[in-house]
Amino acid sequence: MRAWVNGDLLDSVDRPVLSVLDHGLTVGDGAFETIKATGGVPFALTRHLARMARSLTGLGLTPPDDGWLREGVAAVLDGEPGDLRVRLTVTGGPAPLGSERGDSGPTVAVVSAPLGDWPATTAVSTVPWPRNERGALSGLKTTSYAENVVALARAKQAGGSEAIFANTVGDLCEGTGSNVFYVREGEVVTPTLASGCLAGVTRALVLEWCDVVERDAPVDVLADSDEVFLASTTRDVQGVHRCDRRDLDAPGPVTARVMKVWEERAAADIDP
Ligand SMILES: Cc1ncc(COP(=O)(O)O)c(C=O)c1O
Q1: Whether the predicted model's global pTM rises above the 0.85 cut
Q2: How does residue 179 score in pLDDT terms, banded at 50, 70 and 90?
Q3: Ligand 1 site, residue 198, Cβ cutoff 6 A
Q4: Which atom of ligand 1 is found nearest the CA of 204?
Q5: CA distance linking residue 250 with residue 85, whole number of Å
Q6: 236-243 and 121-126: which strand pairing?
Q7: Does residue 34 have its Cβ closer than 6 Å to ligand 1?
Q8: Which helix (H) or strand (E) holds 109?
Q9: b/e string for 62-95 if b means 16 or more Cβ within 10 A?
Q10: CA 267/CA 272 separation, integer angstroms
Q11: Cα separation values, 77 from 4, 14, 135, 256, Å
């Protein structure tokens, strides 16, 4: 594990470096990205930095210079072999204890850690709490992720590795850290961004590289889909073999084709 904070590469990730007044810590006022890297090279970094800028702008924070963020990412990857995940976090920085912001400038932290492996297929569980597609943070990748923590814990209790949210009108939305796709009569469908889901980098690339339709539908659509799969930076494309109590063929033939396209295209272009 390596960490870089506000321009300094740390000698230990355990050394305290942030103010106890950091607005990311006190109220979850910040944005983050999880980026995959192989052999020291980050994947789709340009897209991740663009989304970081969108998230910060949506929060009303000024995005730091891209070059500086790239410097931090390079610092935690330099000389690090193997598959890593890089966590890039930008918060509002030190602030008063309430919801109002301070004026000390942002905190920028970049940490690298081993990526870990996901199996080719997994189980998911729908949860009863809605994603608010009309909320101020809708579509932003903010550090206010405690709703995801609660939902994921519930999915894990049910034996799954991901929780699936509907939105406030009952339409399928997304997972806690992944976008969801399903297959019906050969057609691959994923919810639109209007559902409140995050504009996943993996989702966007699957939409570009494969024949996928964006359409909103009630979350129950998962109960009679032929196949279901997840897409995210750490999972890539992952088949779903159980959704709530229903077993599914996974990875089904359509999912397997999407996985193959993903592997080939992602290997061919490190910054698509
Ligand atoms: C809520 C949410 N949806 C979807 C995704 C998938 O996005 P990406 O493909 O950019 O990793 C993530 C990523 O962590 C996420 O946090």
Answers
A1: yes
A2: very high
A3: yes
A4: 9
A5: 26
A6: parallel
A7: yes
A8: strand 107-114
A9: ebbeeeebbebbbbbbeebeeebbbebbbbbbbb
A10: 10
A11: 10, 18, 35, 31
